[in-house]
Amino acid sequence: MPSTPADGPAARTENQEDGGGSTSSRSKNAFDMLMAPKPKPKSPPKHSYASTSMRHIAHGADGLGVYLLHPETFPSHRVVSYSPDFVVVNDRYPKSSVHLLLLPRSPAYSAQHPFDALQDPAFLSSVRGEVEKLRDLVARELQRRFGAESKSEARRQAVLDGEAEPEEGEEGEELPPGRDWKAEVIAGIHARPSMNHLHIHVLSREMHSSCLKHRKHYNSFNTPFLVDVADFPLAADDPRLHPGREQYLRKDLTCWRCGRNFGNRFKALKEHLEDEFEAWKQE
């Protein structure tokens, strides 16, 4: 696997998730075609990612819409998987080591604010099911990337390497369980989405990324601004329905791991997160 919401859909924050990607290798480059010594160069395929209409919606707040119509035209490092109902993409500006976006394809839901769409019991149930699958996927990727450095993985890795015997379980020999990487995954929507198409974030919790650049980025994933899909449907008096009033994005910066308060000193937090990342990997 590669490297997977403040009040109302019209509002915006500086936390832009994904603004589209570069032209797929499976699509012809329009400029190269124009310059080629051919009397009648072919146009890009009608539904190619390289087509003018697709490029047009690949920017700004509508950038996620480009993935919904023809996800099959994108490379695997951009679109992780797709079905008739959902598309899973790698966030173009990830805020953690692994950061996926789950996109519903139906316009009946994709054009709604998540607070409204997730009031639908059937849709909420389907989203929860997909999120659970992605939690497993992200957990496996974390284990693949960082398992060799984790103390909790040492016994399991020793068995895999033939340096220790497997454990005896009810059904015979079993691998030691290793680290619970799924506990390192968070998932939810932003109370005030920065993109127009509904999307659910599923990401590792360590907040280690060069794309994490300011306080709003960090607080959008480490305050109630990120609403867990497990909390829906929200009660009418839930304060998260009014993120602007609650000022979540302006709250003090607090380390997700140790709880240290950095006030508004983002640079200091960022440096601290580097140390926490190394310690987190070794747990």
Automatic annotation (TrEMBL):
Residues 222-278 form the Aprataxin C2HE/C2H2/C2HC zinc finger domain. It comes from Cephalotrichum gorgonifer. The lineage of its organism: Eukaryota, Fungi, Dikarya, Ascomycota, Pezizomycotina. Its EC number is 3.6.1.71, 3.6.1.72. It comes from the Eukaryota. Residues 162-174 have a biased composition (Acidic residues). InterPro entries: HIT-like (IPR011146), HIT-like_sf (IPR036265), Znf-C2HE (IPR032566). Signal peptide: none annotated. DNA-binding protein involved in single-strand DNA break repair, double-strand DNA break repair and base excision repair. Resolves abortive DNA ligation intermediates formed either at base excision sites, or when DNA ligases attempt to repair non-ligatable breaks induced by reactive oxygen species. Catalyzes the release of adenylate groups covalently linked to 5'-phosphate termini, resulting in the production of 5'-phosphate termini that can be efficiently rejoined. It catalyses: a 5'-end adenosine-5'-diphospho-5'-2'-deoxyribonucleoside-DNA + H2O = a 5'-end 5'-phospho-2'-deoxyribonucleoside-DNA + AMP + 2 H(+); a 3'-end 2'-deoxyribonucleotide-3'-diphospho-5'-guanosine-DNA + H2O = a 3'-end 2'-deoxyribonucleotide 3'-phosphate-DNA + GMP + 2 H(+); a 5'-end adenosine-5'-diphospho-5'-ribonucleoside-2'-deoxyribonucleotide-DNA + H2O = a 5'-end 5'-phospho-ribonucleoside-2'-deoxyribonucleotide-DNA + AMP + 2 H(+). This is Aprataxin-like protein. It is an enzyme of class 3 (hydrolase). Residues 78-206 form the HIT domain. GO terms for molecular function: DNA 5'-adenosine monophosphate hydrolase activity; DNA-3'-diphospho-5'-guanosine diphosphatase activity; double-stranded RNA binding; metal ion binding; mismatched DNA binding; single-strand break-containing DNA binding; single-stranded DNA binding. GO terms for biological process: single strand break repair.
